[in-house]
Amino acid sequence: MMRVLVVDDEPQLMRALRINLTARRYEVVVAADGATALEAAARHLPDLVILDLGLPDMDGTEVIAGLRGWTKVPILVLSGRVDATDKVDALDAGADDYVTKPFSMEELMARLRALQRRAESDANADDPVVLVGHFSVDLANKTVTRRPDAPADVPAAVHLTKTEWAVLEVLARNPGRLVSGKQLLQEVWGPAYESETNYLRFYLARLRQKLETEPSHPRQLLTEPGMGYRFQP
Question: Taking every annotated instance into account, which residue ranges of this chain make up the domain OmpR/PhoB-type (predicted)?
């Protein structure tokens, strides 16, 4: 049974989350402030964390930083803050996804399932093979080849540049996770380039053109406006 730590100081929302998560066979641990959340995480070792940013004793980003000091547990931020800066700050602190209040329970559960799949994927090989469009992408051998079930007019192989590989690898190694533009720039180009968002637009467009079935309507190499990018398996 998956254990979820829910951190929120709104009693009604906490109750609704507990009922819905329990009904879906999650074990639920709750905390109403940041200090209790960090203590509960250390004691119960949750598989997933749902976290509000507006806590009474500290900001949610501090809780994220505290958790990231010792665990890679997937963290879903659930917050009423809609400003893009707040979202990016949470993602840069180490959150894996962000849902804005008010929200539908169906969307929340879908995001949790995606994070759960990602956590399970992380337990597999360090150099996975991922599927993008009609292609099989081998991250270990750095090859892109046509899938057996692809149409005959699809190229047998695709060449990616060193930078295209670097961008794709960051996204592919975080399946389903929202990766902020700042994080992507830092990992590929370094801290001095964290404001060069035009680099990301250019290379994501190139990757979509080479890999997506419909580059103008991407289904896997996604842009989340004002927040970042996501590889959707």
Answer: 127-233
Beta-carbon contacts of 69 under 8 Å, excluding residues fewer than 6 positions away, are none
What is residue 220's DSSP assignment? S
Quote the pLDDT of residue 127.
56
Residue owning tokens 């254990």: 3
- Angle (CA) 68-43-114 rounded to 5° is 50
Report yes or no: 186 and 194 within 8 Å, Cβ to Cβ. Answer: yes
Residue range 86-107, pLDDT digits in tens: 888 888 888 989 998 888 999 8
Fold of 3-122: Rossmann fold (3.40.50)
The tokens for 142 are 């750095």
CATH topology of domain 129-231: Arc Repressor Mutant, subunit A (1.10.10)
What single string gives the DSSP state of each residue in 106-133? HHHHHHHHHHHHHHHHHTS-SS-EEEET
pLDDT tens readout for residues 43-60: 998 999 999 999 999 999
Q: Which tokens in the block code for residue 3?
A: 């254990």
Global confidence as pTM: 0.62
